[in-house]
Structure formats: C-alpha cells, structure tokens
Amino acid sequence: MAFDPPIEPLIELRGVNKHYGDLHVLQDINLTVSRGEVVVVIGPSGSGKSTLCRAINRLESVESGAIHLEGRPLPEEGKALAGLRAEVGMVFQSFNLFAHKTVLQNVSLAQIKVRRRKREDADRRSRELLERVGLAAHADKYPAQLSGGQQQRVAIARALAMEPTVLLFDEPTSALDPEMINEVLEVMRQLVDEGMTMVVVTHEMGFARSAANRVVFMADGKIVEDRPPEEFFTDPHSERARDFLSKILKH
C-alpha cells in the first residue's frame, strides 16, 4: 500500500529551556514547523513568545534542549552562525534599519557582506524587492523620511533579500500606528500566499485567524495549545486560552 513519507520538520525544538535569573522564560518547549507552514505565536505579555522566536536564530541562547534547522543543530558562533541568520530571516518590531544609510543601501548591505554579491547585483535585487513591497520610489530616501509602516516594509525587503529558508516576525506591527498596520500585514499575507515558511509573534488576531496554519498559544513560558486557528478560536481547550481570548477579542 502506498503511503506518503513523513515530512521532515524545517524547524524543530525539543525540550528547550531558558532562564533569565530566577525567571524560567521557556519551559520544556517542543515545537515543529514544516516547510511552507505559517505558525502564529500568541499569548499574554511575558509569556516567552519573543524569546522563543529569537532562540530560533540564536539571538537568544538556550540552556538545555535542542533546536534544529533542516535536521541540523544550530551553530554556536562564527561564520556558521552568520550563515544561519541568512537562512533564518528576522523582522523586528523596531525595524533596526541603519539611519545613516539609504533604503537601498539598507536592503543591499547584508547581500554584499554575507552573500558576497557584487554591489550592482545586490542593488538590482534590492530594487526588485522594494517594488514588491510597494516602495520602489523611496529607494534613495533615509529611514527617518519614511513612516513606521514604510520602514517595516523595508525591513521585510531586507530580510527577503537574503533568500531565507524561513522568516521570523517578532511583533512586527506593535510599534506602528493603527493605519500603518494593514500595509505591513498585506505584505505578510502576500508571503503566505507565496508559500514562505513563517513564525509570527503577533497580537493581530485577524492575521492569526486568516493566515496561520497553526496557532501556538503560550502562557508562563509554556506552550499551552498548538492547534489550527479555526479550532483554537472557536473552542479553546484551556482555561488560560479562554481567559486570554475573552480579553483580547473585546477590543
């Protein structure tokens, strides 16, 4: 009888623990993300969401457990770690653009430094990506001349320029004014439609409902629920999730 072989996870966390002093911020985390999946991580402030996201590309070290990317453990340091961060792109809530460089230079820099592309090739790719996120006309501006939503779209273009295997988003809209949130979510929805593997920490419940394959709900450093969005939002199993949703969905 024919059967489909199991899909090897693109990202796998097994028994991951992390402390900040006495605070046990990640507690025995087990999580897998398959290629092409969109996993949205939600939960109250202080639940460990951002630490989880940052651990996947070793911006945060962990004390125990294992994290694998495409079956390989994350590298500790040096060139291999820089290579990992090219494969695992990250978009932060605070944009992290270089203020003294133009939009084009911001998107091209890591291509030149890490991917070793010629400047003209990097700039060509950067302009293509700026077109894709609706900012081609702003290539020669500096970040301070852009709105927050525009800066975040530049940050997404910069991450895409490295041709990552997976993109991590750490609350990408939380620093934005309400009218700017949708322009960033629209770019993210395009990436979902294109099959990009994504782990998204967010408070945007509409995005979680419509774009996620799975919703991971965290509280007190633990994964409390890991379910498809239609199940999680209509019938949360845990009292902790029910309480969280009753508060956040009223707004």
From TrEMBL:
<dbReference type="InterPro" id="IPR003439">
    <property type="entry name" value="ABC_transporter-like_ATP-bd"/>
</dbReference>
<keyword id="KW-1003">Cell membrane</keyword>
<dbReference type="InterPro" id="IPR003593">
    <property type="entry name" value="AAA+_ATPase"/>
</dbReference>
<protein>
    <submittedName>
        <fullName>Amino acid ABC transporter ATP-binding protein</fullName>
    </submittedName>
</protein>
<comment type="similarity">
    <text>Belongs to the ABC transporter superfamily.</text>
</comment>
<dbReference type="Pfam" id="PF00005">
    <property type="entry name" value="ABC_tran"/>
</dbReference>
<keyword id="KW-0472">Membrane</keyword>
<dbReference type="GO" id="GO:0005524">
    <property type="term" value="F:ATP binding"/>
</dbReference>
<keyword id="KW-0067">ATP-binding</keyword>
<dbReference type="InterPro" id="IPR017871">
    <property type="entry name" value="ABC_transporter-like_CS"/>
</dbReference>
<dbReference type="InterPro" id="IPR027417">
    <property type="entry name" value="P-loop_NTPase"/>
</dbReference>
<dbReference type="InterPro" id="IPR050086">
    <property type="entry name" value="MetN_ABC_transporter-like"/>
</dbReference>
<feature type="domain" description="ABC transporter">
    <location>
        <begin position="11"/>
        <end position="245"/>
    </location>
</feature>
<keyword id="KW-0813">Transport</keyword>
<dbReference type="InterPro" id="IPR030679">
    <property type="entry name" value="ABC_ATPase_HisP-typ"/>
</dbReference>
<keyword id="KW-0547">Nucleotide-binding</keyword>
<keyword id="KW-0029">Amino-acid transport</keyword>
